[in-house]
């Protein structure tokens, strides 16, 4: 099975591209969803509470990802230190889940899967990929999309700052998808890409 990894800046539209690839027949390896699930594991919750206190938990008793994000995306030196701790805590389990999903897809005969991971290069998950697709969109478009998610400019730039540069991501990519226009324009590019690779 070929694994297609997605690269792009914050709010570039990687999740849209992942959905469009799934519609073409790809399996989905969703590292973000796996990350959500891992944060609900009792041992992870206990370690997070010990590290950051009960303030990061919401009214439902679960970790509030926005509250946790404010800690791990804070300015240096605190933010990077806390983010490293979170990654060491959660990434091994996320990695195991992605591998299990991948093995199940291979067993079911799926020809290709798309790996949608927020920090693909930074986490080292690009090692699982045969091909890397860069989802491109100008910063003003990405800022508007982030605002629609409820993120302020500070949230956007804090997340952008911890990622590899767009130039490095673009340079690593085998394919570039322009996601600055309408979803239909992006869909047309994905259909062309898919059929050129997988018939």
Indicate the mean pLDDT. 94
Indicate the CATH architecture.
3-Layer(aba) Sandwich
**End-to-end C-alpha gap:** 15 Å
Quaternary state of the chains: single chain
Over all CA atoms, what is the radius of gyration? 17 Å
Number of helices: 10
Which term fits the overall shape?
globular
The CATH homologous superfamily is called P-loop containing nucleotide triphosphate hydrolases
Task: Report on the biggest sheet.
Answer: 5 strands, parallel
- At the first level of CATH, the class is Alpha Beta
Unreliable segments of 5+ consecutive residues: none
Strand order of the largest sheet: 2-3-1-4-5
For the structure shown, list the relevant keywords.
13% strand; 5-stranded parallel β-sheet; 57% helix; alpha/beta; globular
Can you characterise this structure?
There is one protein chain. The chain has 199 residues and is an alpha/beta fold. It contains 10 helices and 5 strands, in the order βαβααααβαβαααβα. The chain has a single domain (2-198), classed as P-loop containing nucleotide triphosphate hydrolases (Rossmann fold, 3-Layer(aba) Sandwich), CATH 3.40.50.300. Strands 2-3-1-4-5 form a 5-stranded parallel β-sheet, with helices on both faces. The model has no long low-confidence stretch (mean pLDDT 94).
